[in-house]
Amino acid sequence: MKRTVFVLMLLTFIPYLIKAQDVMGKWHSIDPDTGLKESVIEVYKKEDKLYGKIIEILKEEDKDKTCIECTGKDKNQPIEGLVIMRGLSKDGDEWNGGQILDPKNGKLYKCYVTLEGINKLKLRGYVGISLIGRTEYWYRMQE
């Protein structure tokens, strides 16, 4: 009887454990200068590629900003709603081979993404080789 209860409990929690170990979902980006939450980014898969879209800007004074430094179809588009992470492919425990856009300066960088824990996402944006770049961490939104 105890074994049956244990197995049922385990089966109940497995979907939550699997979801918690996935990069998909909603994440808070952190302002590297202030350490405060900056935005909510939804990370999702489309045709086996990983994408990230800013779905909410948290600072009221920044909500209406546009990507004035961006080029192409992103030029002058509202930052809220902008797809900033594009076309990453799964490679073991890492997603790489795509790009990330910094809407503050309009530049696109190569990037890779990996989980650093259940609720911590490591993003590395770089030019050329990953040694020349910047690392940011996003934190999973608790629902």
Short description, anyone?
The protein is mainly β and 143 residues long.
Task: Draw up the topology in text.
Layout: H1 2-20, E1 25-30, E2 37-46, E3 49-57, E4 83-91, E5 94-102, E6 107-117, E7 120-126, E8 133-140
Describe this structure in words.
The chain has a single domain (23-140), classed as Lipocalin, CATH 2.40.128.520. Helix content is 13%, strand content 48%. The protein is built from one helix and eight strands. A hairpin with a 4-residue loop joins strand 5 and strand 6 (107-117). The longest helix has 19 residues, at 2-20. Mean pLDDT is 88; it is low at 5-20. InterPro entries: DUF2147. Pfam families: DUF2147. This is DUF2147 domain-containing protein. Residues 25-140 form the DUF2147 domain.
Q: Overall 3D geometry?
A: globular
- What's the arrangement of strands in the largest beta sheet? 1-2-3-4-5-6-7-8
Highest-level CATH class:
Mainly Beta
Radius of gyration: 17 Å
Count the DSSP helices.
Answer: 1
CATH topology: Lipocalin
Distance between the termini: 33 Å
- Quaternary status of these chains? single chain
Low-confidence stretches: 5-20
Residues in β-strands, percent: over 45%
